[in-house]
Amino acid sequence: MNRRKFLYSFSFSAAAVIMSGCEKESDKSVELDKNSDETQKTVQEPPKNIADNKFEPFTQKLRIPKEIDFEKIAKAKFNAQKSLTALYKEKKTDVLTFQGDLPNPTIRIKNGDDFELDFTNSLEKPTIIHWHGLLVPETMDGHPKDAIATQMMKEYRYKVNQRAGTFWYHTHPHGRTGEEIYYGLAGLYIIEDENERKLNLPSGEFELPLIIQDRRFDKEGHLIYKETPQDNIGVLGDVIMVNSTPHPYKNVKNTKYRLRILNGSSARTYKLAFEGIESFTLIGTDGGLLEEPIIVKDILIAVAERIDIIVDFKDKKVGESITLKTLGFKEASNFAPNSAYPDFGAKMDIMRFKVTELSAQSPLQIPKKLSTIVKMKASDASKSRVITMEIIEGGVWTLNKKPYDMHRVDERVKLGSTEIWEIKNSVHMAHPFHMHGVHFQVLDRTSKIDFPTDNGWKDTVLVMPIETVRIIVKFTIPGLFIHHCHILEHEDHSMMANFLVE
Ligand code: C2O
Ligand code: CU
Ligand code: CU
Fold this sequence. Notes:
The protein has helices at 3-20, 37-44, 138-141, 177-182, 194-197, 488-492; strands at 60-61, 67-69, 76-88, 91-97, 106-110, 114-121, 129-132, 153-159, 165-171, 186-192, 207-215, 239-242, 245-246, 248-253, 256-263, 270-275, 280-285, 288-296, 299-301, 306-312, 321-326, 348-357, 383-392, 396-399, 411-413, 418-425, 431-435, 440-445, 460-463, 468-474, 479-485, 496-501. By secondary structure, the chain is mainly beta. Strand 23 and strand 24 (396-399) form a beta hairpin.
């Protein structure tokens, strides 16, 4: 049996477990296919990660991505390539980068400005860059059908035409997005506008991008991706990197910081909280600023979602530290795909802030009113459609029971129309649902869990186990776009579909 076939047939028995939703001890996780050599091997082998023995958290300084600022330059160049870099101490590992090292640069651009980037593919297989959350023409979006061959170049040219916010970019080749992002091909994309500048939010050294990604390392410090067939349920790691730095620390002053957080993981949802700080303030979601700040104690962030928060270290003395962590929670899934690694709802430390200096600045106030969001109502919609999330025979993750076909149009939408999409999750595992080419609002959801992020503009929404979430979308850009689950192993196999706006 070839490997791919095997992975599918395995994940079918795993799928049965997910669908039945029975509680499993994390050390048993999913049923194993007893007939397979490969499975036997993984069971006998001890975990290969370095976290247990040599890994020491909070010893590496947080890396800050350099910026490509379109106020200073007119055009950028990206070249997807294999690079060698040290992520953990001096241990070198193969990674994939756009400019030779990790983290990849953060793009910063103002609404109304022209974006120009020449992209060269120096990988062995076709690939394409997608600008996640950007409202751009179909040809600029980075649909998998537009992947360019090895050594080919694509010119991205578009005018940014949307409100300020934290977005991101990553490659999007069909079937390989998970692997490419895992090894590095992703970065942040910040849009600014006048409205936001007037608010005087923390900036400069007080504005930090945090790309959170859980990863696996072997004893030599090499990144490792899929190891067992169960990993098709979602690759979970035990070492959390922030901006490509495993469990970093950051020296801070005792004042307010704006954190632009992206969950750039393969599968893991985080329930973020600060140890040592009671609450923090949510000011923005996927599609930019909220209308008003919301004070929270913790917050769920699924793969591909962004949150914009203000955390205030003002009550801390020099020498104190504050740990950003993910709280243990069971709501998103109740099993572990690979028992060598922490399960979906595991409690883990992420990074540490160390107060090393008093702030000289007088403290900034968070404005009471951040932006205006015109709320759409169900009655604005001219049509409703249902998208189901399910596993079909063969263990394939799907939308509406159809494995992805790049050239099949699954949904036809009228240009300019507003629709309600009812996303029904029939599985005992949460899935982040994402759409290209639009921003949407969440109308309602059937679970009782509170999602403060539902108050803002979204391009990705977490649909909890056996939950239905209704979103309302206005389609303003013509062309063929995709909607998919953003757990990378699910979108690769093959929980994705095309919608055509015409
Ligand atoms: Cu992050 Cu298809 O997108
Ligand atoms: Cu996207
Ligand atoms: Cu999924």
